[in-house]
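User: Here's a structure from my thesis project, written as structure tokens. My advisor, Dr. K., wants to see whether a designed sequence matches the one we expressed. Can you design one independently, without my sequence as a hint?
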């Protein structure tokens, strides 16, 4: 990344795929939300401010991103009773492609546009270009206008279906983002994760908690009615991941199309490549570099953990083991107690972001810094490791900066090892099977 450039999903699963301050008395078992509300609001709501950890509800603890502080050092660290402003400004929009159903955001109503580039931290990320690999085989053949004539209704169909499904089950938004990450992590973004046969990626141990396949099936069936044998499953999945973030409050972004669907899907490859959430930061950095992604992308894409849930089985290896360091390090003790009660069974689920689990924002990063409420050990290590901690801080302090970087990183992820050549891949008529077997 060029240092002079402005700052523009894991880690989806595992690290692909994923809060607010509280003031807690050391002599009490109660959490009290930080008093950032107006005095009038505090007076009205004072009767419900204290929560026993037996009825712990993190969603009541609200602390917005403190984007008004230009420098990390300026941010109050010990006193959390300041009157913070709720920073819910949303990031970058490609207005010419923006579906107005997602909201009208004229420039005059987007104050971040006049401030994000004047922050003192736009050059905080170093140039990681020397560490990057470039396995983007057919990236230059992709285009936002690829289906402009052959299937102009494609994007509207995907957007409508995603909104319908997420409206019925908001957790599907995170599932679609995670599905996209799993796909791109193995043989690139070629919809190999969707193939449903014995020994496919879909049957791998790392894929057993994946969801959203029924969403993809419905979208593909509708697209095939309008444009038979035209739109690839890989392109549909990429668009669906974008729309999943938008449906929960993320920013709209243009997606380039032209990917083809792959022929090979191997469970063993998925099990050897896809992170399991127990890796070190070094392992994660090296894995992302193998995809042509850098440290900035690792942290930004991990921000997708701001929505969705994780199975308790993903944290059982350290949750009840007091000697499991560094897994229990850098975590709030009361949050740890809560997790030990919440996750008695590996089959249970717990929110990745305990504060705003259904809203795509930068609370994931705020959780790591202020509350030490990172669910996965890999999440907490992002803040404790000096190679990534400064990026976590930057994305926590300005939500629009997170949106810009997430947009850039998702674009790079969607371009990993894409198939675009005349003799590469196919356009499946059913995402679950190769055309030769359907």
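Assistant: Designed independently from the structure alone:
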């Amino acid at each position: 990344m060029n240092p002079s450039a402005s700052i523009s999903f894991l880690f989806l699963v595992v690290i692909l795929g994923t809060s607010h301050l509280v003031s807690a008395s050391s002599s009490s078992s109660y959490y009290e939300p930080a008093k950032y509300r107006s005095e009038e609001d505090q007076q009205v709501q004072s009767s419900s401010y204290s929560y026993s950890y037996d009825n712990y509800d993190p969603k009541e603890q609200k602390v917005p991103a403190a984007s008004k502080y230009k420098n990390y050092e300026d941010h109050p660290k010990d006193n959390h009773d300041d009157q913070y402003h709720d920073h819910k400004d949303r990031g970058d929009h490609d207005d010419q492609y923006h579906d107005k159903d997602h909201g009208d955001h004229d420039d005059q109503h987007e104050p971040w546009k006049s401030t994000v580039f004047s922050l003192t931290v736009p050059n905080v990320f170093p140039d990681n270009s020397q560490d990057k690999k470039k396995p983007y085989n057919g990236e230059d053949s992709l285009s936002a206008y690829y289906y402009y004539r052959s299937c102009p209704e494609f994007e509207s169909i995907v957007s409508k279906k995603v909104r319908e499904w997420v409206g019925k089950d908001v957790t599907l938004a995170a599932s679609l983002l995670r599905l996209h990450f799993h796909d791109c992590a193995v043989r690139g973004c070629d919809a190999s994760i969707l193939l449903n046969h014995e020994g496919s990626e879909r049957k791998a141990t790392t894929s057993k908690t994946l969801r959203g396949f029924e969403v993809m099936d419905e979208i593909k069936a509708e697209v095939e009615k309008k444009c038979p044998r035209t739109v690839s499953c890989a392109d549909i999945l990429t668009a669906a991941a974008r729309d999943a973030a938008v449906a929960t409050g993320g920013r709209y972004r243009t997606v380039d199309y032209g990917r083809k669907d792959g022929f090979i899907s191997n469970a063993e490859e998925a099990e050897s490549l896809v992170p399991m959430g127990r890796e070190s930061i070094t392992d994660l950095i090296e894995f992302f570099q193998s995809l042509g992604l850098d440290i900035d992308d690792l942290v930004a894409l991990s921000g997708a953990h701001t929505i969705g849930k994780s199975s308790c089985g993903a944290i059982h290896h350290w949750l009840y083991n007091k000697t499991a360091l560094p897994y229990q390090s850098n975590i709030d003790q009361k949050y740890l107690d809560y997790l030990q009660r919440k996750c008695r069974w590996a089959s249970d689920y717990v929110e990745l972001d305990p504060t705003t689990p259904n809203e795509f924002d930068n609370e994931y990063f705020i959780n790591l810094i202020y509350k030490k409420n990172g669910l996965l050990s890999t999440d907490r290590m992002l803040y404790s490791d000096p190679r990534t901690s400064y990026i976590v801080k930057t994305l926590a302090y300005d939500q629009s900066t997170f949106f810009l970087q997430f947009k850039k990183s998702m674009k790079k992820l969607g371009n990993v090892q894409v198939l675009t050549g005349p003799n590469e891949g196919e356009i499946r008529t059913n995402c679950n099977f190769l055309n030769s077997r359907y």
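When you compare it with your expressed construct, this may help: Residues 10 and 16 are 2 Å apart (CA to CA).
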